[in-house]
Amino acid sequence: MTSRRFFLYTSTDDLAASRRFYKDLVRLEQIWDEPDGVAYGIDDAVQFSIDYNPDAERATGWSFQPGWVYGLGIEPRPTSAHNSWSIPLAPRQFKEAVARLQAACTEALRPEPFWVGYWSYVVKDPMGRTVELSDPVSKAPADWRV
């Protein structure tokens, strides 16, 4: 097992839906799976653990993510920072994950990936949390200007 340097913990009231989202749609590397929780690896740096909690609070609206949210035209502007995270993916993994999420009709901030200095596709997970998938490797579109 790879040594993780950062651990992220969250909870869900629907573990099956969270498994489907993170394992089947995003295709994160599964580290372990138990009846009351599951964990995934993100690159070699993060262990992302999801614990079952029947009283887990669902997020509403889109989360504030410093650096880009106010330039995306989200109205009304988010007033609080709900839990949210970004998951970097290799270019092919990014394209395939976007296609799976679109086919599953996952709620997305925009219908297609967009350029914010890297490719970004922002969706909500089953608990309503904002999840940004990113492709930090592929180049900017030809018509993009700083």
From TrEMBL:
This is VOC domain-containing protein. It comes from Arthrobacter pigmenti.
